[in-house]
Amino acid sequence: MEYVVVGASAAGINALKTLAKLAPNDNLTLISKDEAIHSRCILHHYLEGSRDVSQLNFTDANFIEKNNIRWLKGVSLTAIDTSTQVLTLSDGKKVVYDKVLLATGASTFFPPVKNIKDAANVIGLRNLDDAIFIKEKLPQVENIVVMGVGLVGIDAVEGLLHYGKDLTLVEFGDRLLPIQLDHKASQRYQDAFAAYGVKQRYNTAVQEVLMDETGKVKELALSDGATIPCDLLIVATGVRSNVQFLEGTPVETDRFGMLFNPLGETNVANVYGAGDVSGKNPIWPAAVKEGIIAASNMVGQKRVLTDFFASKSTMTFLKIQTMSLGSPIPADDTYQVEIRESPGQYKKIIHKDGIITGAVIQGDLSYSGILTQLVKEQIRIDKLKKCVFDINYSDFFNMTENFEFGFCTD
After folding, report:
1. DSSP characters over 305-346
2. Residue 152: which H helix or E strand, with range?
3. d(CA 373, CA 378)
């Protein structure tokens, strides 16, 4: 059997690990544009200088060699013929597959801002090449602007804090990490970054990239009428899935990316998908799970993705830990909110009809396991005999004769 995995990030590599374990006697091929396996979640460590390229690798030593994986690196997938089951690569090479996993990920989205695609020194932070570019430019730049303050944008800022540069965040939303955090949790990070001298402009958009005579970015014109200096612009306003090679094929996509079911199957036989190529759930843990599940099903061991929240993030910035689950803000007045606060600790749970729909835990994350268990067991928190924040692990060993947890009412 010829198994081919396209993409060397979280989904692709974890799929390969699974294939190597479940199908050790079959042929495994990895195709990737990347020439080094690296975690994009820790690119900021490379930026700040705390890790080199080898320390970004999240596989075991000699993973490729030990598992006899044929690795075609530095090339991208340009076409797939699903009738003959042949892949065409950017170097013209053809690769035949029996089953293929498409885990081609996503690329930085550059919003429709005047000159943003024409100006030099404008870059995203999506892969190792981006991080290398940014680091090489540092000796030549003074004013760095990060456009978008989601997880990638904050990674970039934290990685650059210690270089003594003038750092500015520009965010269209009204707070830092607006998808993951409510205003209170965001404010703690905003204050922490401000203490490091990071300028922050919220409710503001970049309207135009102004260039010098050599074509390099020199200033940004903002929606509030201000013009700010900028020698290096890091764009972190979202991603778009890498599905260009699917044009003209029967593999179905939607406006976000490639479509695949909870088994990782596309609508075409022997073609599977996992990770950011779907364009719907761009976080590392989800990509890992999807890669493992797709690979299991490729070898005939049925596994189904049963993740309960599309949005689940655990983050640590400036030594402040936070876990975010679902929506951090209730959608309307029909939702109820439970909050417990103490110095350095913030817990918030949002629920409707007893079902948890969102949560933010900031500070000590030891409660995160309890919270995850409550969600996993589908426990209605309006049926608890004690405060939801007082539940502990021992409570999960107290089951009634009806196999219900003792801390729940009927």
Report:
1. ---S-S-EEEEEETTEEEEEEE-SS-SSTTSEEEEEEETTEE
2. helix 151-160
3. 8
C-alpha–C-alpha distance, residues 407 and 381, integer Å: 10
Spatial neighbors of 364 by CB under 8 A, at least 6 apart, are 321, 344, 345
β-pairing, 2-6 vs 99-102, is parallel
CA 41/CA 216 separation, integer angstroms: 28
- How many H helices and E strands in the chain? 8, 23
Name the helix (H) or strand (E) containing 271.
strand 271-273
**Could you report the per-residue pLDDT of 269-326, keeping only the tens digit for each?**
999 999 999 988 667 888 999 999 999 999 999 998 876 455 678 899 999 999 998 8
- Asked if residue 371 lies in contact with residue 364, where contact means CB atoms within 8 angstroms, the answer is no
Asked if residue 28 lies in contact with residue 69, where contact means CB atoms within 8 angstroms, the answer is: yes
At residue 200, the 3 state secondary structure works out as strand
d(CA 259, CA 265): 8
Which residues lie below 8 Å from residue 380, measured CB to CB, with a gap of 6+? 353, 354, 355, 408
What's the number of CA atoms in the CB half-sphere (13 Å) around residue 258?
A: 30
For residues 102 and 302, what is the distance between their CA atoms, to the nearest angstrom? 18
- Kindly report, residue by residue over 333-357, the tens digit of the pLDDT: 999 999 999 999 999 999 998 888 8
Q: What is the 3-state secondary structure (H, E, C) of 16-51?
A: HHHHHHHCCCCEEEEEECCCCCCCHHHHHHHHHCCC
User: Greatest CA span in the chain, whole angstroms?
Assistant: 78
